Amino acid sequence: MVVTTNTNDIALLKTNTGNLAANAVIYDSATKDTITLAGTNGTKLTGLQDATLDATSKDAVTGKQLHATNTSITALDGRVTTEVGTLNTAITNSANTINTRIDGVDTRIGNEVATLNTRVDTTNTALVQALGGGAAWNNGVFTNPIFTI
């Protein structure tokens, strides 16, 4: 009877071991470098501890950690969008100010050139009158006087 009990116990252990292997996480090879999780729709791991997040970490990251990262990225994106808008406004305003000032300089230069032209015309008119002898200043063209001695 002891042998029968032992035989039954051994058979039960084999069955339980087979069931355990079917539901246990088992390395894919003796090197223990890969585990394949074979859920029909993928496999979700739960109850994980947060990973160490540093340059040398090989820990798995949790959903909580990813959520915190996504929240930070979303906040950063909002700040960047705001700052880009602020910069665009500042650039536009500066460009408008520069254009207005350039327009003002163009106007002043145009006025100064017109004043200078008037003065040159006035001076040249006075010069040709003083020279006499048919000297003329007409539309920026000087006609030499003719003198007979």
Description:
- InterPro entries: Serralysin-like_metalloprot_C (IPR011049).
- This is Trimeric autotransporter adhesin YadA-like stalk domain-containing protein.
- It comes from Acinetobacter parvus DSM 16617 = CIP 108168.
- The structure is a single chain.
- The chain has 149 residues and is mainly α.
- It has one domain (2-143).
- Helices cover 61% and strands 4% of the residues.
- It contains 2 helices and 2 strands; from the N terminus they run ααββ.
- Strands 1-2 form a two-stranded antiparallel sheet.
- A hairpin with a 2-residue loop joins β1 and β2.
- The termini are far apart.
- The mean pLDDT is 90.
Please give a handful of descriptors for the protein shown:
2 helices, mainly alpha, 4% strand, rod-shaped, 149 residues, two-stranded antiparallel ribbon
- Unreliable stretches (pLDDT < 50, length at least 5) are none
Span between termini: 163 Å
Secondary-structure element series: HHEE
Describe the largest sheet: 2 strands, antiparallel
- The outline comes out as rod-shaped
Helical coverage, percent range: 55-70%
Based on secondary structure, the structural category is: mainly alpha
> How many domain units?
1
Question: In percent terms, what proportion of residues is strand?
Answer: under 5%
Mean pLDDT over the residues:
90
How are the strands of the biggest sheet laid out side by side? 1-2
* Beta strand count: 2
